[in-house]
Amino acid sequence: MSDQPKQLLVVVRRTPYGSSLARTALDAALAMAAFEQPVQLLFLGEGVLQLVPDQHSQSVGARNMSGLLASLPMYDIETVYADEASALRYGLDLAGAPVPTEALSAAQVHQMMIESDHILGC
Amino acid sequence: MIYSLVVMSSPASGQSTATAARFAQAALAAGHKIHRAFFLDDGTYTGSANGVHPQDETERLQPWLELAETQGVELVLCISSALRRGLLDEAEANRYDKAGATAHPAFIVSGLGQLVDAAIASDRLITFGG
């Protein structure tokens, strides 16, 4: 059994209120961070909708996901990543995202995946 | 190689759980090790003791019980996913005053720390479903 830290990439492809996996993916990333394993979050496809600003989910009785995202830097996840083509497709201005977000080109997404030890795709 | 499996879909919603069990059997037959099978989100339904499937459909629970009993594969249900879906072991059923345990005893109900441990200890983390 190896004790080397493993670089984990959590790829989020779910809308914030459309699937329980949206929350589960973040919880998994937070658990990795809590155990001091390097973890990165990448929002891809519909998943970029988690980065929409001003989510007033309480009005439909749902826990606000953007609050959880905003707290990521407290757990040493300072920046998250978004596929720039997906953001463009949904007309998202990532500057308004609940958490500092860096846009990645397809080539950069590919590179990030190659450099990860494990990928958890939700 | 040391593998861990992460199962994210319910056995009733498609093939992924069945594939996960077959992957585990094939990996073990090829001489690899399975460190843990971790069931997350809807995947926790795999651990239900009460699923009833038609006779002419493939067994959904039995392959996992065999992996646990004959190959020592550790089966873990993520506690927060499991509780929400009414999959409780004896301890949780008592804690929350529910009628009885609903998770099959071959499955351990535990936290995400077990997933983190699986990621650290394994060469490959393979996801199924989701």
Structure description:
The complex is a heterodimer of chains A (122) and B (130). Chain A is an alpha/beta fold. Chain A is built from 4 helices and 5 strands. In chain A, strands 4-3-2-1-5 form a 5-stranded parallel sheet. Chain A starts with 7 loop residues before the first strand and ends with a strand. Helices cover 35% and strands 20% of the residues of chain B. A 5-stranded parallel sheet of chain B has the order 4-3-2-1-5, with helices on both faces. The two termini of chain B are 24 Å apart. Chain A binds chain B through residues 1-6, 8, 20-21, 24, 27-28, 31-32, 34-35, 37, 117-122, and chain B through 2, 6, 8, 35, 40-42, 78, 80-81, 84, 111-113, 115-116, 119-122, 124-125, 127, 130.
The gist of it:
The complex is a heterodimer of chains A (about 120) and B (about 130). Chain A is an alpha/beta fold and about 120 residues long. Helix content of chain A is about 30%, strand content about 20%.
Break the fold down into its secondary structure elements and pairings.
The complex is a heterodimer of chains A (122) and B (130).
Chain A: E1 8-12, H1 20-34, E2 39-43, H2 65-70, E3 80-83, H3 84-89, E4 101-104, H4 106-114, E5 118-121
Chain B: E1 2-7, H1 16-29, E2 33-39, H2 62-71, E3 75-78, H3 79-84, H4 90-95, E4 107-110, H5 113-121, E5 124-128
Parallel strand pairs in B: 1-2, 1-5, 2-3, 3-4
Helix pairs in contact in B: 1-2
